[in-house]
């Protein structure tokens, strides 16, 4: 008899947003040059405090002080890669939860090597699109730059393998976002919120990784942290999309909604489903409904 | 008898926008730290896909995969300069069109040396303001930081010489934007759209270079690519300026308009003129009409 | 008998904004990767011209040409630290006023060493939050990342000591912003404008440092420059807050207001007070009124 998966509800996610707002976790970000500003503003909006400490000599000093750490491989210059290894090592040693986002891994050699090393250093959550998760698990060639060329369901097997190998919760973004539990747990959650405008703003996925780090700072359950972060983020995106005239006006509206969305809004609007991980690769994706 | 210049129409430019929207070219950007986010959002809005791959060891790997490449010298740190040479060399070898933007060249020695080396590596388009084009052609001292201190017409001779020397189309931004054909062609196009608010947002010129790379990915005619990119960009700017209360609200409105402007809008609104390049330096500039 | 402090009025600050608009000072920024874009847009909005020249070999070339320089230690990578020393040295030699912003100094060793060296190189203004000023003066452990954990009044003694030691005006940001005069002058100004939304946008403090550099370019009185920059900035923030629905819509509204606020608006709205520096550490702070 296999172990039972834990049940998660929208109310659990709502409570976690409440905890982020109350505790204002300090999130160290080592992220790419394109999205630093948007990421910091997303963290501030959701109620966390950003600190972009990403140079060698300081990255390891800060990780034990931080409440959570994001390591995002979007523009991994040599000195930043050194700082990433410092931060991940210090975070693991101090028990600070950290999130790995292996941006565009697979096709590009420098970041692929870095991502493989970092994946073995105890991240709480690994977050990527389907192509990135397939590539990091060794099952694919990677996507088209930052764009996925595979569906989240197609990455289910790779995500489960990666979760088992690393002990991390694995979050796969897409029209339906998926979160896979680590280790022997057969947890697989689907989140059916969001809006396509989130894919028309650079850093939409990258900043979600930072929000996952913020939520992982207020719970020891990395699956719940990934799901609640995704739920808060995508519910806010839905609300912003109703106010936007395009991708330009969407971005400020999204920050406004991240700041104003309440735990009660999350409990009422989050479409969270427990899924059978074995059935995913066969099942049709509900993308037409988006 | 000299060769006849090709005729270009607003409808040609409109068709090129249609092609960008359909083919969604993947544009590798090696650009300055100030404008990475805005540049990526501009590319997404116009219908292209950005990929900011700018580190040594990856820049050359990606250029053959990319549909177009932008090399912008705004903040040319040492490792990025190495990556720029890698990317330009790999792009030339693979036949990927690439755009050179020699930001603030002339007064600053490091970037001036880099720009001169890069200009000899086969860019499809060189884009700059009048002072930058004069400086790169060896005829001026450069502008005031990123600001031009010369008029586009004053740079006509330098632009034609630079086009002849490098084989690139040369685009000179200003109140009237100019595009000069390479080689023996005596093409000179003027585009009389745009709004002064575009100069009040940082990266207004830099992101146009990225859009030129996107348009050069869908045609082998670099003059048409530069003109159609400029036309799409400046028509969108005009439309956004009508909705804006200042430079802050202009930026999101501009992204919205880049995403929503149609090829038919371009065909209807683009003020494109074939000019006599010999007459430019004598002719009065229509700046008062702006 | 001690020297009398100079009297400053809102009208003095208004005239300085007028001078910035007229003279459009060129401001060289060596600042952190998170806020480069916002900082450049703030400078453009207020009427100055940004130039992000921050690489070794160019930083010293540009500082004598610039009207003012900002050195902000938010993400001090090794090559940027080299460029900062170059720029500060060249600025001092050329008489170009420069502003030091010792972001998150205290807890982080690399930037703390850099800040101490730079503080001895003749900055016109040192700007920080209370925790940063305490740490730079050697009286505190620094804040929580970029967040102050001390009140401006608590830093009054440290600010006066730092002003005396360095010859710089020292600006301490907070609910009530404070500016301390250098040397033997007992000047202490309080500015009671602003809005809490300014703390919900990343770079709110960092971009103010750039604006101080712009104002210091049009007067030799660093106290007046710091006060007028703070006043213009916080009055614009108040006006923007009335139009905003949250931190996302605040940012573009703030840029619009920076561009449209008039010297007459500053003269009418600025709440500027001459304070007794000895009384500050005992006095209750007027934070409840904000």
TrEMBL record, chains A, B, C:
One of its GO terms (molecular function) is magnesium ion binding. The keyword Magnesium applies. Pathway: Cofactor biosynthesis; thiamine diphosphate biosynthesis; 4-methyl-5-(2-phosphoethyl)-thiazole from 5-(2-hydroxyethyl)-4-methylthiazole: step 1/1. It is an enzyme of class 2 (transferase). Keywords: ATP-binding, Kinase, Magnesium, Metal-binding, Nucleotide-binding, Thiamine biosynthesis, Transferase. Gene3D superfamilies: 3.40.1190.20. Substrate binds at residues 52, 203. It comes from the Bacteria. Its EC number is 2.7.1.50. One of its GO terms (biological process) is thiamine biosynthetic process. ATP binds at residues 127, 173. It catalyses: 5-(2-hydroxyethyl)-4-methylthiazole + ATP = 4-methyl-5-(2-phosphooxyethyl)-thiazole + ADP + H(+). Its cofactor is Mg(2+). Catalyzes the phosphorylation of the hydroxyl group of 4-methyl-5-beta-hydroxyethylthiazole (THZ). Belongs to the Thz kinase family. This is Hydroxyethylthiazole kinase. The gene is thiM.
């Amino acid at each position: 008899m296999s172990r039972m998966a834990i049940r998660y509800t929208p109310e659990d996610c709502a409570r976690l947003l409440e905890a982020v707002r109350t505790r204002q976790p300090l999130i160290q970000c080592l992220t790419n040059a394109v999205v630093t500003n948007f990421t910091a503003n997303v963290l501030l909006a959701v109620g966390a405090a950003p600190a972009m400490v990403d140079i060698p000599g300081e990255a390891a000093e800060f990780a034990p002080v931080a409440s959570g750490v994001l390591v995002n491989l979007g523009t991994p210059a040599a000195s930043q890669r050194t700082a990433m290894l410092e931060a991940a090592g210090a975070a693991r040693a101090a028990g600070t939860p950290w999130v790995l986002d292996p941006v565009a891994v697979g096709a590009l050699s420098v970041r692929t090597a870095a991502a493989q090393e970092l994946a073995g250093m105890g991240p709480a959550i690994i977050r990527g699109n389907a192509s990135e998760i397939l590539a990091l698990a060794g099952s694919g060639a990677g996507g088209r730059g930052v764009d996925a060329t595979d569906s989240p369901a197609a990455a289910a097997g790779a995500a489960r393998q990666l979760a088992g190998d690393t002990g991390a919760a694995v979050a796969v973004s897409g029209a339906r976002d998926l979160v896979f539990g680590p280790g022997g747990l057969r947890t697989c959650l689907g989140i059916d919120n969001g809006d396509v405008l989130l894919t028309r703003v650079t850093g939409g996925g990258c900043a979600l990784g930072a929000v996952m780090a913020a939520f992982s700072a207020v719970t020891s359950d990395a699956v719940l942290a990934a799901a609640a972060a995704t739920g808060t983020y995508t519910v806010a995106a839905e609300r912003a999309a109703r106010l936007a005239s395009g991708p330009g006006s969407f971005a400020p509206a999204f920050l406004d909604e991240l700041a104003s969305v309440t735990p009660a809004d999350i409990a009422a609007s989050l479409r969270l489903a427990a899924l059978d991980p074995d059935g995913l690769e066969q099942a049709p994706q509900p993308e037409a409904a988006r």
